[in-house]
């Protein structure tokens, strides 16, 4: 069948036609080549014969020349034949030139001709010399004989050259004759083959064309039958043009199916435009598809519902360009569509059922795969007495590998007595047998040892089919948790007792309040809440009304309003009120609670001591306020009343010093100097006390401060002392920070003044630098509220002090030197400390006698 299909295929004949054409061209080209080579071989043979002929002519001329000259010599008459000899020479040159042309393609013959040309010259010369002999002599002289011999030698060599050339030409002639004969044989044969093949191709083509004609007639008849009986609507349209634009299509051919589906007569629609007979093609872009198929030579497929004679039908069409028109094959698929709808509905139902089954199956598979339980299926093995003696493992899930380490595939179809022999001894085998025989599920717990680890399993055995399904759950953790739970329960009892004691100590009671109940009943009240009310546990029913009986009458309205607001807004509860306990003591309670669904849960604490403490604190604050007012009054007195006598004392001292100082004795002068010094010290002390008392912190006083500018200003204020002391001040990398400007001036003024006062006599220096540190990088102990700090260091190389006094020097009126050594009030560093504390910072000092001091200030960055 396959061979017949191949033979009957038109593609085969197309291939054969192409092959035959190629073969004809190939044979024709070979024949042409044969004829060309045949002609070339004939020309070569002719050429060889011409060369031989010319050689014979040339040497014939040489022989004639020799014969003529010898004949003249014998007749002793050279004059008569001189002109004849010249003619021979001309003929020889002409023949030699012709021969030169003929053998131009043969280098060997060219060599011979070159030598022959030289011998010709010698021959002519020798023959001419013979003609010059005396006319009368009785015999030839030796010279004449020598000349005659020379001619003989030349002629002999010429004949030898002639033989060489003739031999070479004979060889060429032989070769060329063989080539000529071969071409003479094959050329007619190839022409004959070409003619035969051409005749064969003609006959085969004729037979095929005639067969195709007959087949086409049969196919046309068959196609007409198919067209008449097909269920497809087959129409052929040709375009209708108007000004080179397709405006419609004319129906050229339509099969009888149009009458069935469209209910029209074919003879009535042939030759009419489709817009008239099938108006539905003008809808939904179908006409554009027709035009596109014709213009762009593309195939379109359409599936749509159309209205024909008031009836809706489904058409499925293929639009294909064909020749000068388009072929439209349409099929009425209304029945199929309706069947498909029904089939789809049924298929959806089947798909739903299949999906449910698949989902159930996948669910079961996933459950089996994802479960931590070992699931196995065993079938019993009976002996001849129909008694169960063992079980065969037919299935077990992957969890078995995590439990026992066994590969589930390796233990399949093995007996449990071989795989798990301990089941035969610990009573599990008997449970399996009981499940089979009594057909009832059994649940049991057992402990096993796998890989040296003791495990507890809770197993459930149920008969399934001919065997049993065993589901085992590892409850080792549960068993351990039970043990731990017992321990935790014991701990909880202890903790509950501790918590109970803590509630008692903290005076806290808890409650749970169901807000949906009409009576707003407190679901639970802790024992300690009863105790706080002066009652025994469960002395009264925990209702809201019973609890409100203990609330102080003056606070009841406040209590109810707070609760009402919390209930309405569902917000947390936190307020304080007074209660009157059972033993008539007034206590302050604080109730805190939060809503969880419909319950208000919270605690109530006895805050009586805190309220009384707050009252005491309020009284202390009032006392402190009065103290501050008194201190402020003192500041006013110190700033005016205390300084006024000092100013007058200093004024009178200055007047006495101007007028009567010289009249005093030396001892009086010494007393006078001490009075002046003490009054000045008193003035400074009052001034610093005022400065210390007025140092405070207000957010509105803080500004952005550049420390470099602050210290430069301080240097200007201390310019005289700096120049007198010869001290050098070095600043490096000082920051800008948020601070109170005048307090920063006072801080660094005091520190620089101290460094100048306690300077070293040799090359005194003050170094001020800064470094930014994170809070975690600071090792010094103080409360750190900021994430980072500036550490500002003021170092000098002065006299220093013992490190044991590092904290003492920041206290009021604490001095390390006597007045006769270094003047001062002992307040300057206390002011520095208070300023730093105002800025939420810290100050400390490090020193060693004779090696200078270092004051380190931490300020928030």
From TrEMBL:
Histidine kinase domain ranges (all copies): 637-861
SMART domains xref list: HATPase_c, HisKA
Gene3D superfamilies per the UniProt record, alphabetical: 1.10.287.130, Histidine kinase-like ATPase, C-terminal domain (3.30.565.10), PAS domain (3.30.450.20)
Broad EC category: transferase
Catalytic reaction equation(s): ATP + protein L-histidine = ADP + protein N-phospho-L-histidine
Regions annotated as coiled coil: 340-367
One Pfam match: CHASE3
Transmembrane segments: 12-32, 183-207
GO molecular function annotations of the record: phosphorelay sensor kinase activity
SUPFAM superfamilies registered for this protein in UniProt: ATPase domain of HSP90 chaperone/DNA topoisomerase II/histidine kinase, Homodimeric domain of signal transducing histidine kinase, PYP-like sensor domain (PAS domain)
Protein name: histidine kinase
Annotated organism of origin: Cellulophaga tyrosinoxydans
């Amino acid at each position: 069948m396959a061979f017949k299909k191949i033979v009957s295929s038109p593609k085969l004949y197309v291939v054969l036609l192409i092959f035959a054409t190629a073969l004809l061209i190939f044979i024709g080209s070979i024949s042409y080549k044969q004829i060309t080579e045949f002609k070339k071989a004939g020309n070569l043979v002719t050429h060889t014969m011409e060369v031989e002929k010319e050689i014979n002519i040339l040497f014939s001329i040489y022989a004639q020349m020799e014969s003529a000259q010898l004949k003249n010599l014998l007749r002793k008459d050279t004059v008569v034949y001189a002109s004849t000899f010249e003619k021979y020479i001309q003929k020889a040159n002409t023949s030699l030139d012709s021969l030169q042309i003929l053998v131009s393609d043969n280098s060997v013959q060219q060599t011979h001709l070159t030598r022959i040309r030289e011998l010709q010259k010698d021959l002519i010369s020798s023959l001419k010399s013979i003609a010059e002999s005396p006319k009368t002599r009785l015999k030839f002289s030796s010279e004449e004989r020598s000349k005659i011999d020379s001619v003989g030698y030349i002629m002999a060599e010429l004949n030898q050259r002639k033989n060489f050339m003739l031999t070479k030409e004979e060889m060429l002639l032989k070769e060329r004759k063989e080539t000529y004969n071969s071409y003479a044989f094959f050329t007619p044969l190839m022409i004959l083959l070409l003619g035969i093949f051409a005749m064969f191709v003609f006959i085969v083509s004729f037979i095929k064309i005639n067969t195709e004609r007959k087949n086409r007639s049969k196919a046309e008849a068959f196609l007409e039958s198919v067209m008449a009986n097909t269920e497809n609507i087959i129409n052929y349209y040709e375009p209708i043009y108007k000004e080179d634009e397709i405006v419609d299509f004319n129906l050229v051919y339509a099969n009888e199916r149009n009458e069935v589906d469209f209910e029209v007569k074919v003879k009535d629609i042939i030759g009419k435009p489709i817009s008239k007979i099938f108006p539905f093609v003008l809808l939904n872009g179908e006409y554009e598809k027709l035009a596109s198929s014709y213009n762009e030579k593309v195939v379109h497929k359409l599936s749509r519902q159309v209205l024909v004679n008031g009836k809706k039908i489904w058409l499925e069409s293929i639009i294909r360009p064909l020749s000068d028109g388009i072929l439209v094959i349409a099929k009425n698929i209304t029945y199929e569509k309706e069947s498909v709808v029904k089939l789809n509905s049924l298929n959806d139902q089947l798909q739903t059922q299949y999906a449910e089954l698949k989902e159930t199956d996948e669910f079961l598979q996933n459950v089996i795969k994802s479960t931590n339980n070992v699931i196995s299926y065993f079938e019993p093995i009976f002996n001849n007495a129909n008694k169960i003696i063992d079980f065969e493992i037919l299935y077990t899930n992957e969890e078995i590998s995590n439990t026992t380490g066994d590969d589930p595939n390796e233990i399949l179809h093995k007996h449990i007595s071989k795989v798990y022999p301990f089941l035969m001894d610990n009573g599990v085998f008997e449970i399996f047998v009981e499940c089979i025989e009594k057909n009832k599920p059994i649940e049991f717990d057992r402990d096993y040892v796998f890989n040296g680890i003791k495990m507890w399993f809770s197993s459930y055995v149920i008969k399934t089919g001919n065997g049993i399904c065993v589901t085992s759950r590892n409850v080792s953790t549960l068993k351990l948790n039970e043990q731990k739970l017992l321990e935790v329960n014991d701990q909880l009892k202890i903790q509950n007792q501790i918590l109970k004691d803590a509630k008692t100590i903290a005076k806290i009671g808890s409650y749970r309040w169901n807000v949906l109940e009409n009576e707003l009943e407190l679901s639970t009240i802790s024992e300690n809440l009863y105790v706080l009310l002066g009652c025994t546990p469960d002395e009264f029913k925990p209702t809201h009304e019973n609890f409100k009986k203990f609330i102080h009458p003056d606070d009841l309205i406040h209590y109810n309003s707070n609760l009402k607001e919390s209930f309405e807004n569902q917000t947390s509860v936190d307020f304080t009120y007074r209660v009157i306990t059972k033993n008539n003591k007034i206590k302050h309670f604080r109730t805190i609670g939060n809503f969880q669904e419909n319950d208000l849960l919270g605690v109530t604490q006895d805050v009586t001591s805190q309220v009384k403490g707050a009252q005491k604190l309020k009284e202390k604050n009032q006392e402190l306020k009065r103290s501050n007012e008194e201190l402020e009054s003192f500041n006013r007195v110190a700033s005016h009343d205390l300084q006024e006598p000092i100013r007058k004392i200093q004024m009178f001292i200055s007047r006495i010093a101007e007028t009567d100082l010289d009249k005093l004795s030396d001892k009086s002068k010494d007393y006078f100097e001490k009075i002046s010094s003490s009054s000045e010290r008193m003035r400074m002390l009052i001034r610093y006390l005022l400065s210390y008392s007025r140092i405070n912190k207000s957010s509105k006083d803080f500004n952005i401060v550049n420390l470099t500018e602050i210290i430069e200003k301080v240097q200007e204020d201390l310019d005289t002392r700096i120049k007198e002391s010869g001290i050098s001040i070095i600043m490096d990398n000082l920051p800008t920070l948020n601070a109170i400007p005048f307090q920063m001036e006072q801080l660094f003024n005091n520190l620089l003044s101290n460094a100048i006062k306690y300077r070293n006599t040799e090359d005194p220096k003050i170094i001020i630098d800064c470094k930014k540190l994170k809070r975690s990088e600071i090792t010094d102990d103080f409360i750190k509220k900021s994430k980072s700090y500036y550490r500002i260091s003021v170092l000098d190389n002065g006299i220093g002090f013992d490190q044991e006094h590092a904290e003492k020097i920041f206290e009021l009126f604490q001095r390390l030197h006597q007045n006769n050594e270094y003047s001062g009030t002992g307040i300057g560093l206390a002011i520095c400390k208070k300023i730093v504390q105002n800025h939420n910072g810290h100050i400390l000092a490090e020193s060693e006698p004779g090696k200078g001091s270092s004051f380190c200030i931490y300020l928030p960055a």
